[in-house]
Model the fold of this input.
Amino acid sequence: MDLVHYAEKMKYEVNLLENRLKMIKQYEKYLLEERHKLEDMIYLQSESLDQISLKLNVSQNIEYKLFKEIMINGLSVTKAIEKVALEESKDESTLWRYYYPKVKEKIANLQAMKDK
Done:
């Protein structure tokens, strides 16, 4: 009688273990799919960023240089204006007054598109 009860208990435990293994395999499949989606998103966004960076590097426009320094190179607005003013031999106040408002608007538009 004890042996039969022990065998039934072992069958039950094996069944539980098999079910757990099945659930783990399903979860692994889900994680693998999620990983591929994330890798694809990273690749596509990196490609887009590379294209934007390339276009901005080609551009000689002061607005685009400011945009590049802020968005691509990650400089603060003040540092970007100082750098571009130095490169372009312009006064910083000129960049603040005439160029930064346009760049600020473009950055805001990008943020709005990102938030959608």
Summary: The mean pLDDT is 88.
